[in-house]
Design goal:
Blueprint (H helix, E strand, L loop, with lengths): L27 H5 L10 H9 L3 H12 L2 H26 L6 H4 L4 H35 L9 H28 L1 H8 L6 H17 L7 E5 L7 E3 L3 E5 L7 H16 L2 H11 L1 H16 L3 H43 L3 H10 L9 H7 L5 H11 L19 H5 L8 H28 L2 H13 L3 H6 L3 H6 L3 H9 L7 E11 L2 E10 L2 E11 L11 E3 L4 E6 L5 E2 L2 E2 L6 E6 L2 E6 L6 E2 L3 E5 L14 E2 L3 H17 L18 E11 L4 E6 L2 E5 L6 E11 L2 E11 L3 E6 L2 E6 L3
Parallel strand pairs: 1-3
Antiparallel strand pairs: 2-3, 4-5, 5-6, 6-7, 8-11, 9-10, 9-12, 12-14, 13-15, 16-19, 17-18, 18-21, 19-20, 21-22
Helix pairs in contact: 2-11, 3-11, 3-13, 4-6, 4-13, 7-11, 9-10, 10-13, 10-14, 12-13, 13-14, 13-16, 14-16
GO molecular function, one term: peptidase activity
Keywords: Cell membrane, Hydrolase, Membrane, Metal-binding, Metalloprotease, Protease, Transmembrane, Transmembrane helix, Zinc
Organism: Micromonospora purpureochromogenes
Length: 737
């Protein structure tokens, strides 16, 4: 059976004919990447092949980094500890009360359960609390960034797409940076050019291995000064070895260089760089503890670093590396197979038997990845299966051929993309452009801040108060109070909306904005600033409407009956009444009756205004009220004069003498002047000025000691009373009663 970690299927191959390797050719991007491997039509195909190969590693790095797995682990542990302690205490003190009385009183069963809970309730509660707390803490960190998606499902899709694009962009930029700056980075890390003697020793072996592998060019070979540790590592454009390799036999050196040439040819470093780039924030944080442990190797240091950075270390070890391990192991088996193809199986076997690994990293990530290499015994076992038993033929244990060729080893990268792939990409790009353009157009036309202002004033221009209220934020609508009354007032006669509205500018700050508006009201050109707010809920799960955040203005009116605003009756409860009004001009009218009338006034409410100026609703006498009052007073006095008594009851005149009045008659000789003073819309005080007093003449006879005596007497008249409206008619009540 074939191992799942092996990348190519083993097949027989013809021994490659050695050719002299040559340097890579210059030109364009290829010139900047002159040391890239051969066999790729261009640098884009090479980068694409490396980037898209290990999707498992990319997925693991993406999930661990962009879903905040270290923070989720930290929250899980602390949440588990908190609820675990709570469960331990509650379970140990209150577990016995959890049993129903029926079960507790049951023979044998009740005491058994009660004893079990009393002795183990705390432990059970602690375990349950820790499990619940850990799960809750872990899920809170994962779900909290997506809280907006619960109200807007489209946010989940757009958020994921944006996250994937951001991760891919970071990974791509990091990979390109590593590849382009690789010579400088290696020189900074300590790699140098080979000396003449070093070159005479290593370059012929490197060229021979490349020729046997069918590689027409070789990477740049650098060396590090390390006489103790035999180490080699293939990068995207370089192979770096240590000086201790010079002490190894040529066969071992050739095996090691053949191994690294396969890594270089298949772009394994590009794959690893992209995985690192996708998880770059996590990789950078992970570099801190690994550097500390490598710089200060001591158990106490390791313990302290682990206590501080354990979420990052565990995430890297149990999430990222397991996902990346499959490709790393397959790459190692493939590189070992390349050494066999180059004819250096014995040297590879010697290196694996004498050393645990000849590839060690210089960074924390490199060391972690190298730890995922297959065990040396498994690699030796694979070498046995790949090495021919005789010079002519050999088969593996399962009967399949045991030699690989360059085509099976390196594969065929092909063009940048097939015609079908390009058509699919083009179709998706076209759909994305059209869809994005349509959404952008809809957003610009219907859901930008200016659209909210236009909708608001358009509704006012149409006299549609309900639509105007719908353009306000919820708190502004709540401040309007009775929305139906406001809608009737806006739709009533006498309302004048702002016209010639023009949004001159919009200043936006996040989800809030201020629109500067020019408009015309009552023939005057004015300007105002309207606050706007972006709605939290989305229309169709995609678009956020803007709403006007200015509440309606408050208009204070006296709480008198009969007041109207645009023909709609205003509330009459209390001394003062406040009405909420939208921008525009309103006609406020008062009572009209037989006694008084209140002239209509126009009230102007400006956009963004908090309160409107209260109108002067002072009633004035009706034109016919004075004449009616005079007639009422005359009728009253005439009724008094018709009485043939010395003191007419309820009348403003009387005749007084010490003798008995035998006969008397009254006659109004001059009616008094009547003055009216309004005390309200339906009542007025009736009075007579001093100079406007009237007179009444009394004639008759009196009976006394000397007999019957005739008399004639004039009395001054002053009238006082109240003139009020009763059942729509003026009624005079003398004396202010």
């Amino acid at each position: 059976m074939t191992d799942p970690d092996v990348d190519p299927q083993v097949r027989p191959a013809v021994e490659p004919r050695p050719t002299e390797p040559r340097p890579a050719g210059p030109g364009g991007l290829d010139r900047r990447l002159a040391d890239r491997p051969p066999g790729y039509p261009n640098a884009l195909v090479w980068l694409r092949a490396g980037i898209l190969r290990d999707w498992r590693g990319v997925l693991g790095s993406f999930l661990a980094t962009w879903f905040y797995v270290p923070l989720a682990l930290l929250a899980a542990v602390w949440g588990g500890l908190a609820l675990g302690v709570l469960g331990l205490v509650a379970g140990g003190t209150q577990s016995g009360d959890a049993l129903p009385s029926v079960v507790r009183d049951a023979p044998l069963v009740g005491p058994l359960l009660d004893a079990f809970l009393n002795r183990s309730g705390g432990v059970v509660g602690g375990f349950v609390g820790f499990a619940v707390g850990s799960l809750a803490g872990f899920l809170v960190v994962l779900v909290l960034p997506w809280r907006d998606a619960f109200d807007e499902p489209a946010n989940l899709f757009t958020g994921l797409v944006g996250m994937v694009v951001a991760a891919a962009l970071v990974g791509l930029v990091y990979t390109l940076g590593r590849v382009l700056l690789e010579p400088w980075l290696l020189s900074v890390s300590g790699a140098r050019q080979l000396s003449r003697r070093e070159a005479e020793r290593l370059r012929p072996i490197l060229s021979g291995c490349a020729a046997r592998l069918g590689l027409p060019s070789v990477p740049r070979l650098l060396i590090e000064d390390d006489p103790v540790l035999t180490n080699a590592r293939a990068y995207a454009r370089h192979i770096v070895v240590t000086t201790s390799l010079l002490d190894e036999p040529d066969e071992d050196v050739a095996a090691l260089l053949s191994h690294e040439l396969v890594h270089w040819r298949t772009g394994d470093e590009v794959t690893s760089a992209f995985v690192r780039g996708v998880g770059l924030p996590l990789v950078l944080v992970h570099a801190v503890p690994t550097w500390l442990m490598r710089r200060f190797p001591h158990p106490a240091t390791d313990l302290l670093v682990f206590l501080v950075f354990w979420p990052v270390l565990l995430t890297m070890r149990f999430v990222v590396l397991p996902c990346h391990r499959r490709d790393v192991r397959a790459a190692e088996y493939r590189a070992d197979a390349g050494a066999v193809l180059a004819g250096h199986a014995a040297g590879m076997r010697s290196m694996l038997e004498r050393r645990r690994s000849f590839e060690t990293g210089r960074s924390g990530w490199d060391e972690a990845v190298c730890a995922t290499h297959p065990p040396s015994e498994l690699r030796l076992d694979r070498l046995e299966r790949l090495t021919p038993a005789t010079a002519d033929e050999a088969t593996a244990a399962d009967g399949s051929p045991a030699r690989v060729g360059t085509e099976e080893l390196f594969g065929r990268p092909g063009p940048v993309g097939s015609r079908r792939a390009w058509l699919l990409v083009g179709a998706l790009a076209l759909i994305g452009c059209l869809g994005g353009g349509a959404l952008t157009t809809a957003q610009w036309l219907l859901f930008r801040p200016q659209a909210a202002v236009d909708a608001y004033f358009s509704a006012l221009d149409d006299g549609d108060g309900r639509a105007a209220l719908a353009a306000l934020t919820p708190d502004a609508r709540a401040a309007a109070g009775d929305g139906e009354q406001l809608a009737r007032i806006v739709g009533g006669k006498g309302y004048q909306p702002p016209t010639d509205v023009d949004v001159t500018s919009v200043e936006r700050d996040g989800d809030e904005a201020v629109a500067k508006v020019a408009y015309t009201l009552a023939g005057q050109k004015l300007s105002a600033e309207l606050p706007l707010r972006r709605d939290e809920s989305a229309t169709l799960g995609l678009f956020h409407r803007w709403q006007v955040a200015a509440p309606p203005a408050r208009l204070s009116l006296p709480g008198a009956a009969g007041l109207t605003v645009n023909g709609q009756p205003a509330p009459a409860a209390g001394e003062n009444v406040e009405l909420a009004l939208l921008p525009g001009a309103y006609t406020v009218g008062g009572q009209r009756n037989a006694l008084s009338e209140t002239p209509s006034q126009v009230v102007y409410v400006l956009p963004g205004q908090e309160s409107a100026a209260s109108p002067d609703l002072t009633p004035t006498l009706a034109p016919a009220a004075q004449a009616t009052a005079e007639e009422s007073v005359k009728a009253y006095l005439d009724a008094c004069a018709a009485q043939t008594v010395a003191a007419p009851q309820g009348c403003p005149f009387r005749y007084y003498t010490g003798e008995t009045v035998k006969k008397i008659a009254w006659k109004i000789t001059r009616y008094p002047t009547v003055e009216l003073s309004l005390t309200g819309p339906t009542s007025a005080q009736v009075s007579t000025p001093f100079e406007g007093r009237g007179s009444a003449r009394a004639t008759g006879t009196t009976t006394g000691f000397f007999g019957t005596t005739p008399f004639t007497e004039d009395e001054e008249i002053q009238v006082a009373g109240v003139l009020s409206v009763v059942d729509g008619k003026l009624t005079f009540r003398p004396g202010g009663e």
